[in-house]
Design a protein that fits this description.
Radius of gyration: 16 Å
Strand content: under 5%
Number of domains: 1
Low-confidence stretches: none
Distance between the termini: 11 Å
Mean pLDDT: 87
Number of helices: 5
Length: about 140
């Protein structure tokens, strides 16, 4: 059993990263450098949401209450990150000189999915027998 204090750091890390994404996406587009590489912004989305998925997963497995989130942390991680990615794109629609792009949301979801696949691969190696909907002991 984990103590509330030790669990708090995982939840805090996740929520601080959510806030950082929100704050970053609140700046107008011209505040960022122009990148000539096609698709570079999508790679950034994949990386950022992959990291978000990792923090989300840690937060979910360290919940005190047994819930759908704790029972299916990998699936719920992708769902939560995908919904947050969609809400972030909607938020950007209202930011001056920014727009909402469906492909950014797809990249966000892909980043979360890639992170979950990596986490699952690691857990399978570590615990040998691990199903997608189970949490490690």
């Amino acid at each position: 059993m984990y103590s509330i204090k030790s669990n708090l750091k995982y939840h805090l890390l996740f929520f601080l990263f959510l806030a950082a994404i929100f704050i970053e996406s609140s700046f107008p587009a011209e505040t960022y450098p122009e990148v000539e590489i096609v698709g570079a912004d999508k790679l950034v989305h994949i990386g950022v949401y992959g990291l978000l998925a990792f923090f989300c997963y840690l937060s979910l497995i360290h919940r005190e209450k047994v819930s759908l989130f704790k029972m299916y942390p990998l699936i719920m991680t992708v769902v939560i990150c995908s919904i947050y990615g969609a809400s972030d794109e909607i938020h950007q629609f209202f930011v001056p000189n920014r727009d909402a792009e469906m492909w950014d949301w797809v990249a966000d979801t892909a980043g979360a999915l890639i992170a979950v696949i990596i986490i699952r691969y690691y857990l399978r190696k570590k615990y040998k027998m691990f199903k997608l909907n189970e949490k490690p002991a």
